[in-house]
Amino acid sequence: MSEERSSAVRRPATREFPQGEPRLDAAHASEEIKRFLDLAIREMGLSLDYDISSPAGSEEVVIAFRGSDEALLLEHNAELLLALEHIAHRWLRLDPRMHDRVRFDCGDYRATRLEELKLSARVAAQRVRETGQPFRFNPMSSRERRVVHLELNGATGVRTVSEGAGDRRQLVVYPAQKKEGGARPR
């Protein structure tokens, strides 16, 4: 109960600046993430260690896990890893615009997944250019859709659109529309 009570008075890891842009207090975030992970790992009975790093001069915090329970973190497309990250964002009361600045990883899963998504995006774009038919990705998280959108942003001959709702939301790559009478592709 004392853990819960002390968490209620924690200050957020982000602060608003006069420009309205939130900034991450990496030192405070690292301290709070350590408190959260020590509690979560102990209560979950996981055999994991972690390193928290924040590249000098950056507003990013990266948490890398290792240990005999790594496989549990990475099962089912890293659901547990991503769930811990999500809870950490809540623990920090992190502004949603800052979620990309606090990342959890294990065995380079995130870096590998990022490269897979970028490659899939390029392959899908090429297929759409060649066939003229839209390509629909399986449902994916907003972060993963964002990676594909960014990878294909400005790509010749294609445009991307997210369709659907909730956890069934998909990214679709369409052939680019020709400009007609002021109509613009998305």
Structure description:
The chain has 186 residues and is an alpha+beta fold. It folds into two domains: 2-107, K homology (KH) domain (GMP Synthetase, Chain A, domain 3, 2-Layer Sandwich); 112-175, 2-Layer Sandwich (Ribosomal Protein S8, Chain: A, domain 1). Helices cover 44% and strands 19% of the residues. It has five helices and eight strands. It has helices spanning 2-8, 26-44, 70-91, 109-131, 142-152; strands spanning 14-16, 22-24, 49-53, 61-66, 102-106, 135-136, 158-163, 170-175. The strands form three sheets. It has a three-stranded mixed sheet. A hairpin with a 5-residue loop joins strand 1 (14-16) and strand 2 (22-24). Mean pLDDT is 86; it is low at 1-9 and 179-186.
